[in-house]
Design goal:
The chain has about 240 residues and is mostly beta strands. It has one domain: Rieske [2Fe-2S] iron-sulphur domain (Rieske Iron-sulfur Protein, 3-layer Sandwich), CATH 2.102.10.10. It has 4 helices and 19 strands. Strands 1, 2, 3, 4, 15, 16 and 17 form a 7-stranded mixed sheet that branches. Strands 9-6-5-18 form a 4-stranded antiparallel sheet. Strands 11-12-13-14 form a 4-stranded antiparallel sheet, with no helix packed on it. A hairpin with a 4-residue loop joins strand 12 and strand 13. Bound molecules: FE2/S2 (inorganic) cluster. FE2/S2 (inorganic) cluster binds next to loops.
């Protein structure tokens, strides 16, 4: 179903490639495991490589990765997001990678809630980003909140759970940016792996939407990035 490698060693956080600088999340520079999947280029709605200067700040964008049916938020924040050392509910330690780019402020999070796997569908989403203009969260702004059972995660501190019943932080997507090519890639996932539960729980819906389980589980090589309001018809906030 999936090709996974475990990255245990590391690299420096900025590597020269073909004359340009490749910015890596700092997870790639740490001696901690990150689950690596097929590298996927992030592209806009026209199929052009996405670059920092084309991403609207503080607006939730969506892309599916590492599988065709697994959604993530892409967020361009106004402050650097530092890497964090976290531990899953099962006791596995991992490095949440923080932001990439010159400002270390481009981050991506799984949009599958780690409590009971609510996620944004084409029809609606109760898992949402609450930006700086949002007054919907008494706990602050730049948060991801799941209205299914009110778990809240802070996008400024690597998806840390700050309230609610979820036992894990939001998983982060490991990103890379190639300065020479002006391309951004998703390359892996840091945090509790929840894809088995997600696919088991949503088997029927995903088969209906993607034609088969195999299609839903196909690894992504090019990920289209679109605004949340185009990804989900109804954005339900709480
Ligand atoms: S499914 Fe998100 S809080 Fe329960």
């Amino acid at each position: 179903m999936q090709r996974r490698d475990f990255l245990k060693t590391c690299a420096v956080s900025a590597t020269l490639v073909a004359g340009g600088v490749v910015f890596l999340n700092d997870a790639r520079a740490a001696d901690l495991s990150v689950t690596m999947y097929k590298k996927a280029l992030l592209v806009d709605g026209m199929g052009r490589p996405l670059w920092f200067d084309t991403i609207t700040p503080d607006v939730p964008f969506m892309f599916n990765y590492p599988f065709a049916a697994t959604p993530n938020f892409l967020l361009f924040l106004d402050l650097p997001v530092k890497p964090m050392d976290y531990t899953t509910s099962e006791g596995s330690k991992y490095k949440a990678p923080g932001g990439i780019g010159k400002g270390k402020n481009l981050v991506a999070y799984s949009a599958i809630c780690p409590h009971q796997w609510s996620y944004p569908t084409k029809d609606f989403t109760v898992v949402n980003y609450y930006g700086k203009k949002d007054q919907g969260c008494s706990q602050g702004v730049q948060l991801i909140k799941c209205c299914a059972h009110l778990s809240i995660f802070d996008t400024k501190i690597c998806g840390k759970k700050i309230d609610g019943p979820a036992e894990n932080h939001m998983a982060m997507i490991v990103l890379e940016a190639d300065e020479a090519k002006k391309e951004i890639y998703a390359v892996g996932v840091a945090g509790k792996n929840q894809y088995t539960e997600f696919f088991d729980l949503n088997k029927q819906e995903l088969r209906k939407e993607y034609g088969s389980s195999a299609n839903a589980k196909a690894e992504v090589e090019k990920a289209s990035v679109i605004r949340l309001e185009k990804y989900s018809k109804n954005i339900i906030k709480c």
